[in-house]
Amino acid sequence: MDIQLTALHWVYLAFIVFIMTLLIKRRDTSLICVVGIFTLGLLATESLSGSVSGVFNSFIYATKELIGTIFIISIIVAMSRILIITGVNEMMVSPLTRFIRTPALAFWGIGLIMMVTSWFFWPSPGVALIGAVLLPVAVRVGLPALGAAMAMNLFGHGIALSGDYIIQGAPKLTADAAGLPVADVMQASIPLVIVMGLVTTVVAFWMMRRDMKRGTWRDGLVESGVGTGPGSTESSAQVRLPKQLKRWLAVIIPLLFAADVAAMFVLDLQGGDATALIGGTAVLILIAVTLIAHRNRGLEQTTAYLIEGFQFGFRVFGPVIPIAAFFYLGDAAFTELFGKTLPDGSHGIVNDLGVALANHVPLNDAIGAVTLTVTGAITGLDGSGFSGISLAGSVAQLFASAIGTGADTLTALGQVAAIWVGGGTLIPWALIPAAAICGVNPFELARRNLKPVLIGLAVTTIVAIFLI
Q: Where does the record locate the signal sequence feature (predicted)?
């Protein structure tokens, strides 16, 4: 059905183009998104008070949609903090260090451990949890510090975060923006995450070994060195626990999360239900370990760790909320906030634009896939990875409406591209956690990651074309 496009549609599209232009120039887009919300509200309500109220209400709407994701990340960071301070994190990964005997085993071992850890603890806390313990072992067997940083980075901020199958923060954002169930986006992302992960890590490892043999490898070490990052052994010595107790906790905590994963499969928990199970488990672990470690100060310290976790969560998602608020207006949020102001038969601004595009532009699978990869990569240029994936979801919905198929694959492709670029593999200021732990220059780490990630994106895009 041909929908009549109105000024609302054109203004929304103009702001999307403007936002993408700013992202290319590496400028912040939060203010522009607020102006976009205000402008759309003014056109819809023809009321200054209505448009001003719409800005605030859109923030409330976006926060309600994102609150589960913000809370789970905050709680996991809070739990990670007590595990680092007590040294339980060291005990959790120490059995794995005996298998790291060669540079190759160190690279792939650190990467796989980082990937699994990041599924449950998020990549930045994951770097802190395992970096200080595994890095000295890796360097001792001949893996350069920069190689260890690459492994942690590509497997954690790349593979684990782009799929995000346990916490499900990334697929929640993109699925909501695309108007799809979270499970559909997650399922569609599996082959793309596998291809992207395999191609990128194999190319990165091959290039590292090649340059080491040629003698052209530069480690990019900085004076801060190992042990200065958030997971340093200096911080982990602040609270001492008996070795036997730490050993028991190091066994029990992974078993609890393994039980959560088993429960997800048995009870068919997905999305918010799966997140709630992980989050509740993390809260209980946080409370138990804090009470054991701090004893009489346990009540106060539990609150202190929660505050620290929530400060981290809202600092990360502060710039995401106004951006997500704008892109939610492309779907159901617009009618909820501004009433029935779209034409009869409209299914949302983005969907209407997609139908119009299909009627006037000969889009095909290849053009759609390439455009989604480029769009996702551009949204990642701000170094967040999360702030722009709502845009990727909206564009995927628009293109899928035009092509007539492939909404889940296009959405997943945009998510993978956005997070690999912005989540912490190519943008120097997003690489700081891994670079700080390993004592290497974040710009050198970004330079090392560039070719493998670009090759991976190209191959993944080709695969996505065949999957649409």
A: none
Which helix (H) or strand (E) element contains residue 35? helix 30-45
Kindly report the pTM of this predicted structure. Answer: 0.69
Instruction: State how far the Cα of 178 lies from the Cα of 328, in Å rounded to an integer.
Output: 9
The amino acid present at 117, given as its one-letter code, is T
**Distance separating alpha carbons of residues 135 and 319, to the nearest angstrom:** 32
Task: Report the distance separating Cα 326 and Cα 6, nearest Å.
Answer: 18
Q: Is 154 exposed, middle or buried (0-12, 13-18, 19+ CB in 10 A)?
A: buried
Token couple for 93: 């990964």
Q: What is the pLDDT of residues 1-26, one digit of tens each?
A: 566 788 888 998 899 889 878 877 76
| 225: CB partners within 8 A, 6+ apart | 439
Q: Rounded to a whole number, what is the largest CA-CA distance in the chain?
A: 71
The Cα–Cα gap between 179 and 401 comes to 11
Asked if 414 and 370 count as a contact pair (C-beta separation under 8 A), the reply is no
Dihedral through CA 409, CA 414, CA 419, CA 425, nearest 10? 100
Q: Which amino acid is at 276?
A: A
Can you tell me whether residue 261 is helix, strand or coil? helix
pLDDT of residue 232: 36
Distance, in Å, from the CA atom of 62 to the CA atom of 73, rounded to the nearest integer, reads 17
- CA 388, 393, 396, 398 dihedral sign is negative
Tokens 């004592």 belong to residue? 439
Residues 6+ apart with CB under 8 A from 385: 157, 161, 418, 419, 421, 422, 423, 424, 430
With H, G, I as helix, E, B as strand and everything else as coil, classify residue 221.
strand
Q: Contact, 453 vs 158, CB < 8 A?
A: yes
Q: Which residue has the tokens 């940083």?
A: 149
pLDDT (tens digit, 9 = 90+) per residue, 27-43? 778 899 999 999 999 99
Spatial separation of the C-alpha atoms in residues 40 and 188, rounded to whole Å: 33
Q: How far apart are CA 147 and CA 153, in angstroms?
A: 10
